[in-house]
Automatic annotation (TrEMBL):
Ranges where the Activator of Hsp90 ATPase homologue 1/2-like C-terminal domain occurs: 21-131
Family the UniProt entry places it in: Belongs to the AHA1 family.
A Pfam entry, by short name: AHSA1
Protein name: Activator of Hsp90 ATPase homologue 1/2-like C-terminal domain-containing protein
Amino acid sequence: MKGQTASAGFQIGVRRTFPISQEQAWDLLVSPEGLKLWLGDLSALELQVGQGYTTKEGISGELRVVKLFQQLRMTWQPRGWEKSSTLQIRIIPNPTNADKTTISFHQEKLKDVYTRECMKKYWEEAATRIMEKVKNRVAIIHSLRGRIKGGC
């Protein structure tokens, strides 16, 4: 069946390329503002293996892998789910352009095909929210640069 493996059950992957550096992508994703875009309302996420978290929306889990600027791997369990899934986020730099980075969300151990489709939509919407935030930041930076060059 599509999206199902023998070892990880149902899974989904969503990735998007953003016009920012790998470091900027990481900083955005782990900031309180960025966490709201993909994880939920959480004042901070201490980046330590074994660190637990619970969002105001009821998503909870534990960090399993933390590789600075590169990867987060965690358990991910919304309120109402019987079992947790595994979520991996990778921040992949573009080898030819330091100002482009791919953010990849990969979630496995999903219950069934319905949950897979729901999570596909969730991660696509999260990627869209991140892109909107990035575009707004880039527009502000360009506006400020224009003002500085213009003398006002």
